[in-house]
Amino acid sequence: MLFIHILALGISCIIALVVASGLTRRRVYPIPLPPGPRPLPFLGNALQSDTKRPWLTYIEWGKKYGKIIHSRILGIDLIIINSETIARELLDRRSANYSTRPVIRSNELAGLAFNTVLLPYGETLRRHRKIFHQVLRAEVSVSYDKMYSRHANELVINLLNPTSDWHQHTRAYAASLIMAVTYGHLADGHEGSFLTRAHELLDIGKHIASPERAVIFTAFPFIEKLPFWCFGGTLALMERSRELCQQLLNEPFDEVKAQIANGTASHSLVADFLSQAHDDADEDTMKAVALMGYMGGIDTTASALQIFLLAMVLYPDVQARARAEINQAVRHDEMPCLDDRASLPYLDAILREVLRWHPVSPLGAPHATSNDDVYGGYFIPKGAIVMVNQWALSRDEDIFPDASRFDPSRYLTIDGKLKDPFVNHFAFGHGRRICPGRWFAENSLWTAAAAILAVLRIDHAKDSNGDRIEVMPEFSTGLVIHPEPFHCSFESVNTAREGHLRAMMNSKVRWMARFCGLCF
Question: How far is C-alpha 420 from the geometric centre of its chain's CA atoms?
Fold first, then answer.
């Protein structure tokens, strides 16, 4: 029996080498490919990159090879862009050729083929983006102002609880806000279960969907036939991922459908769709859009909010200047809202700097070329994976001097006006695949940051001896990164605004109690 296993393994290795040999056979191009590290036989550059933080490897390569780099992993061409100028030229101005996505087979094997972000360019993607545009375009996103404020105010009150977990509260803020837009309010207990499973799926998906990890399935398709447990680690979770996908696609959607039937549904994206749907309505598309709207927003929004809090602890002078701006523009007993945004340019500059200082998704989402192209005298082959290294863009010293420092002033003119629209920030992507929820994301982030600064001072926490606990920024890995939990404290610096928030929260509790027929 052992001999049979060894023989099978040997045959598999021989097949793998034959396939790799064919994939890595030298191709002839009319002009040179972009420069890059010398590939190894069979493996290409697979062993030369940091699989956990490849963006750092690409920066080091950029110092040697330039702003556009060619790499090859198991015969798959990767084009890495380390320049905002090149990214705009290729992905924006030549978007017709750079708007599709590479086939990430691990994404499909994990049941995530519905993922709007990784859909190839075509009719299905257009249907998804049409729905996103209807509910998340600029003017509609602004109309959610009261919803943003209600959830942001609740976040502030939660942060004032000294025994609470601020890390979880930021995730809850993003999750509850996006839940309200996509599904409305689910039954008691269902929202918590949905959120727990959505986070589990996110944790699985953000690791297995990276091109560097997934390329092995493209190079060696026969390994799909092997049971997932053979691979161990993250890939072994693909079966769990498929199970979660089916649950999350169907259960909240079906619950909203039941709420409509019994007249208890609240206003939401899914409720609107079902109320207006005809017999031939594409429910599968709506399920995919709703779940992707939810999952695509909670992780990135929570990460940006956590990075904001980290910056406020480390740069108290920035925090103080932002609070002074709010106090000058907004009455001391009122909370800032989106109507005040034009009067608070420094706060907007802070949020731009949050997205630059530590990009939430350091490599963004991969693009792919539909046809051969030429740039700067270099050949870019059809089918190449094109990746914009947002980390490199954020560290470009020619554009952002002293790039490791958090400095919102770099986004302001001499007279204090904002230089560029927020939605043009490279963190939202490029070309036709730019994030369709960028207006909702920036409004929800702005409202939360404004509410926090209007009421709270964020400071270093103290240990049992009263000594300050230093904060050393550390980040997770994956497609979306988060600051690792750190110690900080929240202190109210405006009793009038705090009292206003607590009164509103108490009013909400009393209303809910009456609504539920409870004694209060």
Answer: 22
What percent helix, strand, coil does the chain show, rounded to 5? 60, 10, 35
Question: What total of structural domains would you count in the chain?
Answer: 1
Residue 520 lies in a domain: no
Check residue 289 and report its DSSP letter.
H
Which residue do the tokens 């051969």 mark?
A: 372
Residue 157 pLDDT: 95
Task: Write down the residue that tokens 């009719």 correspond to.
Answer: 123
Three-state secondary structure string covering 439-486:
HHHHHHHHHHHHHHHHHEEEEECECCCCCECCCCCCECCCCCCCECCC
Give pTM, 2 decimals: 0.88
Question: Contact at 8 Å (CB) between 289 and 268?
Answer: no
The domain spanning residue 463 has which CATH number? 1.10.630.10
Give the pLDDT band of residue 421 (cuts 50, 70, 90). confident
Bridge-partner residues for 456, per DSSP? 492
Please name every residue paired with 72 in a beta bridge, in sequence order, or none if there are none.
Answer: 77
Q: Residue 415 and residue 360: Cα distance in Å, rounded?
A: 30
Q: For residues 174 and 291, what is the distance between their CA atoms, to the nearest angstrom?
A: 14
State whether residue 77 is helix, strand or coil: strand
Cα-based torsion angle of the residue sequence 464, 470, 472, 473 in order, rounded to the nearest 10 degrees: 90
